[in-house]
Fold:
Amino acid sequence: MMGGLIGLHRLYLDQIPEAFIFISTGGVFLLGIVYDSFYISKYVDFYNMRKLGEIEEVKKYKNGKLLTNLSRMVPFSFLKFVASVVYAVWLASSDNLLMVSALAAAVTTGVYIVGNCGRETRNIIYMWIGSFSSTFIYVGNLERFIRAIPFAAVVSTWLGNRTARIRTPLNRPFTWKHLLVKLITVHTLIVRFENERFCFMFQKSAWWNGDFVGKGPIWTDMVAVFIVDLLYQEAQVLEKRSKIEPLKWALWRMFLIATFDASAFISHEELRGICAQWVKDQAKLKDKLDSNERVNTARGCDVINK
Structure:
């Protein structure tokens, strides 16, 4: 009974990532056992079916048709994404400015462990590269630290889904190497909260404690918006609501934001409204000579309206 409070029943069901999350968070603050009490029978049935070899590969259907274009993309799970962000915040919580590498490692760990739940496996290298690069341009003062976490998680989740595959025995989801890394992580968490003076001793160096306030340029917001736009347009194409290539659509949208000197976080409806007003203004001009900027702006407005 006591083992169930911290997730030892997940170990018995061969759910290693889920068990690690339980153990490292004290049973998800003792609420995880309440959730599992409603779904434990489902987990046990799934475990028994897997042992008996009765599980077939899950195929994705919509309106009775097999979606073959989703073969390279794992469906986005909002609950998993929220769990990844919350777990990353739990690993990286601090009253001081964190180093970029430590924050990126925490976000990557959170996304990686949560992303490996449910018979899926992901490549941590790509997730680390995306998380580190996006966090590097975002970390500044406390405000930027908070904003860096969800966007770094977006990048890691996106890249992780690109490398995701159904876990098989050949994937070797858990080895002694993984056990060592996880034990070191748990020990680091314990030291982090029990002996903060020792944990942050190396941060006394001016190199680590440098003040980044005011050094975050506007283009960091543009990078974050570009990533979200890319994900949005990919979903539009997959659902057959648009035929424009996601990268092309996102780049043209960034061009229009820069051309109209608009806010990076402008809504799509507002940007379309600006484009419509620009087209009307251009129609009233007496000078009909088309400059490169005018042609490109018109083309960009046409792309985002499709």
About this structure: The chain has 15 helices and four strands.
